[in-house]
Amino acid sequence: MISFKKGKIKVPEKLQPTSANIDESWLILKNVFDKVLSDDTHDISFEKTYRVVYDVVRFRQEAELYNRIKEYLVQRFTSLKTDTFDKNPAITSEEWKFLETLGEVWKSTNIHLECIRDLTLYLERTYCERNRVPGIVETGLEIFNTCLLLPLKDTVNEEYVKGINNLRDTHEYDTPHTEVLERLGSMMLTILSGEDSFFVVFVQNHLLEESIKYYSELANSLNLKSIEGFQKVETLIDFETKLDTSFLTLDAATKVIKCIDTVLIWGNYESIVEPLLLDALDTLNGEYLRKLYSLTTERKYRLKLRSAIQNMINKNLSSIELDESEKKRSLIGTKWASSVISMFNKYNKLLEGLSFEVESTIDNVANTEITENQMGGRQLSTTNNGPDDSEDFSQGTVSAAGLLNETFSNFFKQNSKHSAQYMSFYLDTCLKKTLEKTEINDSKNSILECVNLVRLLPDKDEFTVIYKNQLTKRLIQQQSSLKVEKFACKRVNEETGSFWTHKLGTMLRDITRSEYLAQNFSVSQQQKATEDSSTTTEVLEFVPDILTITSWPFQDIDDIVAEDLILPAQLEALKLDFEKFYNKKYNERTLKWVHTLGSIQIGFQFEKSYHDLTMPFYSALVFLLFENNDELTTEMILEMTHIPEQELYRQLLSLVMSSKSRILKKSPASKTISKSDKFSINYSFTAPTEKVKVQTIVGNTSSRRNDNNNNNNINNVLERERINATNAAIVRVMKRQTAITHTELLERVTEEVKQVFTLQLLVFKKSLGFLISKEYVQRDPDDSSLYHYIS
Amino acid sequence: MSSPNDTSDSKQDIISLIGSDKVKHSILREDAMLSSTLKSIASGNFADSKDSIELPSMSGPVIEKVIEYMNFKGKLLREGREGDNTEVTAEKFENFNIPTELSLDVLLAADYLNI
Predict the structure, then answer these.
(1) Tell me, what's the ipTM?
(2) Parallel, antiparallel, or unpaired: how do β-strands A610-616 and A599-605 relate?
(3) CATH 1.10.10.10 segments of chain A
(4) Which residue in B48, B98, B105 is closest to A47 by CB distance?
(5) What is the pLDDT of residues A143-176, one digit of tens each?
(6) A598-697 CATH
(7) Domains in chain B, number
(8) What value, to the nearest 5°, has the Cα angle with vertex B94 and ends B90 and B100?
(9) Would an 8 Å CB–CB cutoff place A417 in contact with chain B?
(10) Which of A198, A415, A571, A645 could form a disulfide with A419 if both were Cys (CB 3.0 to 4.6 A apart)?
């Protein structure tokens, strides 16, 4: 800030212009500009020129000066074009000549314009800024464009593309030509034509078209259907990327590369990509899969790739055949499941680390695919992805694991008749191996792999029910290692949710507790034996399994409890002892004895050899009768044991008929049993091993019935559990929204339970009917499709 | 912003401005470059001498004043104070005196030099 002190302001002496005449000044300036344009500025004083401009402006001639400069530039650029290009038609005949010349012209024009700008800076500062007209350089460039570049644009276009193709042909990257292209590229981007740059307006499309043309021709000469061809394409694309990014805008470069992708690969999807893909999958070449995938960012193609991979895997999966030569369903199932699992592992390894990212809309696509795949049209479409996948979807991407999961989940859905059952069989087989300690680690791995897939099953509850039945069998017959069972149970629990599997935990707990009780009990028995040695000389070993009724999958407990069974005195005493012992520990609980689940081991000296016979409880009871009797009729046995009649027939038949464990003789020797048949011990029995397992054989006729029964049982249990779950889901939904229409309710409930099973309309109807009859839910009296929740 | 080292280096790089009185007035090149006009003259490919620039339209006292101002501004820029705290800057600027009788000449010179 200037402080104004008193004193005169001295008026500068020379306010008079050195030359006020615009024409005189212009002559000086024109001369200077001429020299600037011919790069001959060594004898010009910048200061003097600057002062001329300064004076012109000071005397209000700036508009005139500005216009004269414009005119001058128009004239100069027009003649430049004529001199350099028009008069020299041969310039286009030689490759690169035109481009090189244009590049040089551009380079010097820039320097010249900047120089003129500097000289006339005073004009630009005062006149241009005040009147909002473009500065000297901008004006100059515009004039350059209209007078020189625009008339030449076709040639520029042609030559530019020619130049690029030339580089493509030679595959040389670091040549001076690249520099020329680079310079011209920046020129075309700097110069504006209307809204956009010259490049975007005039050249880009032409370049794209020509690139497509170029590569189409190239594509014909390459053999693209093999991995080798693919490699060639890769190098081509690599080169092109390097080339384009050096002198094109990012936008244009991506466009060009996309074009090439389309031409070389995706344009011929069926004939090129698919064989390549199949090849890569066949040879398990993850590298190529990844490369193929990274070639494109377009959703359309990625989806195609995905579904191609899925189809391929699905095809391979479907080729896994059920080995009908095996007699047992469990063996067929195990084989099938283990093939499926090994295939999953194979592809999982292959696709590991590949990110098959596709935008979130894949979700819908996947959904529709699933719907199409469903055979029963009435089933509602659900995606059956684990929680992991839905997370992925929400992030808008699907990993390779997601893809695999989706594929396998669909596959299981297609095979929903047996997939749950077979997976369970597989686990059963694995777990049964765990008695051998050396197998434990292998089995653990198999279990982990298997349970991973269980997550993808459409009806997890079906799996759980079957698994539970098999677990029961294993636990009671002690066919597996409890430690591994617990491990497996925990994993299953994690995958299927605790609602369905918490009972498995209770079952395992029961067994553990029983072991503990057994120890305590045998200690107390031994004490008793030592105190009271006169009555019992030998202590029977007794292993109780105390099972919580509600947790175990026994249909109707009263059916299998035979209250009026007559036990041999020793067993009866043991039973009473244990009841006493148990009541002391748990006062409130009642014990019910389910003998059929137990087994008894008896040592017996036959004529030739001694054997430890492990036999079902009823068989043992029958056998024990012969301790005191040499020969008994069916009727007598019935009376002495009170074994249910049908059951007794079955047991007797197996004791007499079984080829490996025929320990009783019957007279007359026929294949049926009548009441008057007589039985006695078959002393001539012998077996190669000391331990003999006496099995209850099941006749052919009864076996089929049993199998059906078994299936029916599973289905019944399943339906009951599903109705329960549906009840709970309906109540949950309706608690939030007390009035709801039928369709909406169905949708919501389907959503609620889809993690575990696919809701069938029948189940839903039954469940809703149940809730209405229990008056939890009420139909609206006016609108029959509306329901109310009664709290 | 320049470090002290830079300052000492450029101290040796001095150019001179010659006004109508034909007397050489020295100024740091760095400071002179604050004027776009001087910068163009000194860096362009012209006949003008790069080390002593003639400014015949300005008198000696005006040039002295101009140089004083450019030194002052250059120093402020180097210290990195300008714009930081406008009050401090304004206060310092008040100490910068321009004799009344020269004010119009200095104004014209500033416009010419674009500083």
Answers:
(1) 0.79
(2) antiparallel
(3) 720-789
(4) B48
(5) 888 888 888 888 888 888 888 788 777 776 667 7
(6) 3.30.230.130
(7) 1
(8) 135
(9) no
(10) A415
